[in-house]
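Recap from last week: sequence in, structure out.
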Amino acid sequence: MQELGKYVIIYTDMLEKLTYRQAILFGVLNGMAVKEGYCFARNKTLSKILNCSEDSIQRDLNVLQKLNYIHREIERNDKMEVVSRKIYTLTATLRIPLTAELRIPSPLNCDNNKNNNNNINNIDGDKPQHTKFVIPTIEELQKEFPQLDAQRFHDFYTAKGWMIGKNKMKDWKATARNWMRNDKKETNQQAYKKLTLDD
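Predicted structure tokens:
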């Protein structure tokens, strides 16, 4: 049985054309082909590794071959039964030869990534970073919104555990703006009722 190494190589440009399983299958084939230059694992073995059916493996192999990521050589006997199969990964088309020497990144380069604010989900840095909610002081409320009854607002949400319905408050400034809008509507409605009752 052919052994799979400790890691597999999947080229990033493959992820645009393949499903994740197909890309991982390529990585598995590539890893198994390192020693002999080709993979001879059966579909049954590959299906156990990837936890899928043999039919799925066959379909994925067909896709990989159609896109020129692999080449299969099948040897048959007189009865047209498959005697052996060799799967070559065509890494030359991906600009990296199979026997290329891999360079391990230095720890200095890895440490630099810790300080980088961009992560895999935020490559352009356009998504806001989530910060922990901090309860505002009455002074902060008065400074930010002088027209707000800061004591009333603070007492109200302190009593509710700084919750809005069943959810924890995320942005006290937005909540304060909504509070003032609703308070203004309430005042206008009360004034209107007073005018209509006085008539």
